[in-house]
Fold each of these.
Amino acid sequence: MTKIKTARMAAFAIVAIGLAGCVEDTTIGVETTPTPAQQACLAAVSRTANTTDVSVLSSMGSEAGTQVKVGVGPDRAQWNCIAYSDGTTAAVQFDGEG
């Protein structure tokens, strides 16, 4: 291997290791099984918005909790929710977009 290829591989490995510690879980446009935090927010938003037409737009986790953006209805109006590791939720509110 040339020195350039070796340097590129080393740089890629460093970036990959650094990204492994990130806690962001963005799911925009990807259909996956919702995490427990996402499921809790889907249920909370569904109750608050009085509809079952809800889907996860994105989520970002941290040690304190997981912020989940939920799309509601056919236009995917954005709602925000925070879910905690004990299954509780807070700050369920319409974001005013969508």
Amino acid sequence: MKFSIRDLFLVTMIVALALGWWMEHRAQVRSRENAERGARILGLRLVQDGYRIGWDGAQSIPVVLGPGEFELPHPQPTAPNPPKR
């Protein structure tokens, strides 16, 4: 069986693309795992210090409530400046 340079180049390209994809995929998985691990550790430390962690359902973001806080702070509407006399 004879292989031409073109055949060897094609096999080399296919292997290189597959290997590159696999390496990128593994890097993304490791990065996500590290971020999740860090978030868990941070959450545990905050809970140990008396903070509560919840989710803001409207925006799907984590919310950290300090010790003694029971709900999310709602911004108060600002009143217009009173007229000067």
Amino acid sequence: MQVSPTDQVAHNRRSTDHIPRGVMIGSTVTAVVLVGLAIGIGVWDVYAGIRWGGDATVSAVIQSWAKSYPVLPLLVGIVMGHLFWPRFPGGGSAAS
């Protein structure tokens, strides 16, 4: 069976072909930095918990900050909503 050149081009095209190369490199670097930060914070949390006890862990410090600054959980919620709210094609929302 012979494959036409058009079918071959379509077959060779990857799902990321429409993304410019610079954007792909930038998003890869960003992903590596985010994973590195998550691992670093996790390692620090374990070290601080072992070295100085439970009050020195990341979660204990964040809870203390939230008690001192009640607006902090609201701001974190706004940021999480911005990061995880579903994106729809054409910039619309689920309601439109």
Amino acid sequence: MVHAASKRGLNLPDAPQRRNTMSWKTINFILGLAATDPAFLQLLRDNPQQALTAYKLELDPQELAVLQDISADTLDEYARQLVHRLGPHRKDT
């Protein structure tokens, strides 16, 4: 699976075929976009698939399921849940 360039021209890393964690670069991109674009944050909360598609981001089914399962009132809480559930917990990621 390949993370395509976003509308803003930022390239995300190629994702390994099988993995248990989302890369820090991908997490930071999603959270940075959510912090600077209120419409993206709202769409991310309401319909993660549509939010990611709008920026040509592709996640594997496990990652997408986690995003769809997050319930948070604030960006801070959203970020905590995302990092806890998908953040790379190993130094090699």
